[in-house]
Amino acid sequence: MLKILTVIGARPQIIKAAAISRAISNHFNKTVNEIILHTGQHYDENMSDVFFKEMGVPQPAYNLNIGSGMHGKQTAQMISGIEEIIVKEKPSCIVIYGDTNSTLAGALAGSKLHIPVVHIEAGMRSFNKQMPEEINRVLADHVSTLLFTSTKTGWQNLMKEGFKSDNTPPWSVSNPNVFLCGDIMFDNSLYFADLAVKKESFLKKNRLEPRKYILVTIHRDFNTDDPIRLNNLFSAFDEISSSENIVFAIPLHPRTKKLLPVNLMPGLFKKVSRCENIRFLPPASYLEMIALEKNSRMIMTDSGGVQKEAFFFKKPCITLRPETEWVELVENGNNIIADDDIEKIAGAFRYFSGGPVITYPPFYGNGKTAEFIIEEVIKNL
Ligand code: UD1
Ligand code: UDP
Predict the structure, then answer these.
(1) Which of 3, 65, 242, 305 lies at a 20 to 30 A Cα distance from 313?
(2) Per the domain annotation, does 6 fall within a domain?
């Protein structure tokens, strides 16, 4: 029996873990025993528990309850807690997702104890080391034994960093194996899309009519913590919502909720708080979020996952960052990088409102990526 220790902590990791846990329980429950460790990086009901309940993720066997804090302290406490559990459980491997501090902590704790690390969503790069996530991704990849990349670009990024496609087993941290496999978030979007129809009453409750609103999410530190950027973004939303009479639906990450009153100019804060066309919502559950995405006219976001979901649900996306890891979406015309530039955001809005022809090639696999990953983990470890 392969014993997998899955390390999760932040909202998108609980969501990603749903795909792998579902694959294990549907197809591999006789060969794989998954133990889930939650670092507690996200802890509000609507940032954590709701995803376990709604998406059928097994309850974590361990919760370190680390909570929020400076990067160093938070990551160090996670490493220390994960290490103790590795020593106790002696897993066959550690599974980590994406690029958060919980990812890095799992990677360091596992690799130092010579437990093979399996990195899902490996190889993604923004080439912007000001982002904590970029540091986390690069470091996690370079101590992993099995690396599963979502896109061709991810795979190529790793090859450019010295990973090899002609390594042969046995695999180890010094002789890793890189797979191109598709994206488990695509698996989830297919699995949950129909269930999300039930949540359409949530739209009515918030007076959101199909195709009459733009869905916005913002949570990156460089947007929330920088008053100039945050003011630019909200000035753009304010301008577009009033000149085009379109609603902005904004489920607020707790970080953004805390910083809006601090970093927006008082006049702009008052204006957007009272504006009928700007609707702040609490963080949405996954099914509510899918309902919001599917029924939106377009999406503006600085999230990694939401850029991909815009594509899965065939919605144009405007990215509120200077760059993206999901470059195929920009090259194919599904996504425009507008950063915090008010003119570019308005221009991208007008362009997409004109209804350009947009295609949706199969960039993210066949919807069975989670099964592929578990099969390969069993074969290769
Ligand atoms: C983290 C990840 C980011 C990911 C995002 C997903 C890192 C460095 N960042 O960013 O890559 O895109 O999660 O959402 O790992 N807070 C609460 N309640 C919660 C969680 C957070 O109030 O349940 C507030 C706290 O004030 C906290 C702040 O949000 O200080 C930031 O949380 P943190 O986990 O440090 O980073 P995120 O911005 O959520
Ligand atoms: N998400 C959600 N509720 C929200 C905002 C996002 O369920 O209010 C989901 C979203 O659908 C996607 C994932 O969270 O599946 C993306 O996570 P997030 O934007 O927090 O982080 P990132 O992907 O940027 O790391």
Answers:
(1) 242
(2) yes
Residues that are catalytic: 219
108 and 242 both lie in a single domain: no
When pLDDT is cut at 50, 70 and 90, the band that residue 199 belongs to is: confident
Beta bridge partners of 146: 118, 177
Same domain membership, residue 13 and residue 126 = yes
Residue nearest ligand 1's atom 29 by CA:
255
Q: Which ligand is nearest to the CA of 215?
A: 2
Residues 214 and 176 reside in one and the same domain? no
What's the domain count of the chain?
2
Q: Looking at the structure, do residues 64 and 173 belong to the same domain, yes or no? A: yes
Locate all alpha helices (DSSP H) within the chain, ordered by sequence: 11-27, 49-55, 71-89, 101-112, 132-142, 152-160, 184-192, 200-205, 221-224, 227-243, 254-263, 266-274, 286-295, 304-312, 327-331, 342-353, 369-380
What CATH number does the domain containing 349 carry? 3.40.50.2000
Query: Which numbered atom of ligand 1 lies nearest the CA of 99?
Result: 11
- Establish if 358 belongs to a structural domain: no
DSSP summary character for residue 212 = S
Which amino acid residue places its CA nearest to atom 13 of ligand 2?
A: 12
pLDDT tens per residue, range 301-356: 999 999 999 999 999 999 999 999 999 999 999 999 999 999 999 999 999 999 99
Average pLDDT over residues 79-94: 98
**Nearest CA residue ID for atom 7, ligand 1:** 100
Per-residue confidence at 198, pLDDT binned at 50, 70, 90? confident
State residue 359's pLDDT score: 98
List all residues whose CB is within 6 A of at least one atom of ligand 2: 11-12, 15, 217, 219, 251, 283-284, 286, 289, 303-306, 309
Residues of the chain above pLDDT 70, percent: 100
Q: 119 C-alpha vs ligand 1 centroid, how far in Å? A: 20
Same domain, 63 and 158: yes
